[in-house]
Amino acid sequence: xxxxxxxxxxxxxxxDKVVKVLQDGGLVVYPTDTVYAIGCxxxxxxxxxxxxxxxxVNPQKSNLSIICYDLSNLSEYAKVSNAAFKLMKKHLxxxxxxxxxxxxxxxxxYKNRKEVGIRVPDNNIIRTLVQSLGNPILTMSIRDExxxxxxxxxxxxxxxxxxxxxxxxxxxxxxxxxxxxVIDCTTDNFEIVRQGKGEL
Length: 200
What we know:
- This protein is of the alpha/beta class.
- It has a single domain, classed as DHBP synthase, CATH 3.90.870.
- 32% of the residues lie in helices and 22% in strands.
- The chain contains eight helices and ten strands.
- The protein has helices spanning 12-23, 45-55, 74-77, 82-91, 108-111, 124-133, 149-153, 155-162; strands at residues 2-4, 28-30, 37-41, 64-67, 96-101, 115-119, 137-141, 168-171, 181-184, 191-194.
- It has a ten-stranded mixed beta sheet, sandwiched between helices.
- A hairpin with a 6-residue loop joins strand 2 and strand 3.
- Helix 1 crosses helix 6.
């Protein structure tokens, strides 16, 4: 199903429709401030496993990332030092993923790696979804390194490709091409692991 939602002013009725799908363990494709991504309720282990399987990601070997509405509940999902918190507060919402040690609230599937990526994108649609769901959303970029670029930015082409694999594709306008900048904050020496759209 393709659902049109306007980023400037997301329609609550459409948001509620998507939230219901997420609550039922469904998969959703949505825009962020970088690229289009696929996600599910981050605390629904079965849905997380479904996305990992679909994307060919082994959660034992790969870091998983979640989208939060803001930094207020951060300590529920990650252990964050004062220095890391200051850095995040300065740059979020924005095109960054901060890697932090996981906390006890996240399901076991995240703890195999002992780290989790935290995102707060500068995009009203996905943040409104997270806020309405009341849980973070697991997020993975739909773009693989070797894929044709065009379809990954056009929601109608994304829908064509994914309509049988996901429950909803949100059309929030054309997406970007550049992924987020990833910063490892698991030690005191912060390190940029991947330079993307965000400039620190």
